[in-house]
């Protein structure tokens, strides 16, 4: 898997050693407020999630661990083409780091992987994610109710798309 350096970030392959840092994010109620499942209570849940991420085959997806100042701060990528997803530790929100990580990922999805479009599935209450995706050129295509059950709470979805600048007709 390639490594990508942006101005402030390193995007790299996820490692089993990232378990503690990922668990700190995935067990945080703020980070998980609009995720498709409740905060991870057990390290074993994060361990299984991380193992899935490490094992993604290159023809299925490309999901990056994101480091800032030598520390793991989140993940961003396409766990399964063509759907994009990201989660960052709340300590680093509001600094443009999530946007900085997504720009090269989106570019690679269109150029290296040749995807005609990328899709995002966002909880309609997740305003910061909707703002971020809209800034990066994503446009809402449809809404659906009760798409995921996070614990005992049904969540709705806004689906957004960004189209490849290399595909004719868009
Ligand atoms: C979604 C998520 C990654 C967005 O993080 P974020 O830090 O708000 O996103 P950005 O990196 O784009 O930062 C944008 C904010 O930083 C501010 N900012 C500060 N310096 C900036 C800079 N140099 N460049 C860009 N934005 C900057 C922007 O004004 C913006 O603030 P605003 O949201 O109040 O308008 C984060 O909220 C998160 O991890 N949430 C939990 C998981 C989740 O919901 N994921 C989405 C599922 S689809």
From TrEMBL:
GO MF annotation list: acyltransferase activity, transferring groups other than amino-acyl groups
Entry keyword Transferase: yes
Annotated keywords: Transferase
Protein's UniProt name: Acetyltransferase
SUPFAM superfamilies in the cross-refs: Acyl-CoA N-acyltransferases (Nat)
One Pfam family in the UniProt entry: Acetyltransf_3
Organism in which the protein naturally occurs: Novosphingobium barchaimii LL02
Span of domain N-acetyltransferase: 9-161
Source organism, top-level taxon: Bacteria
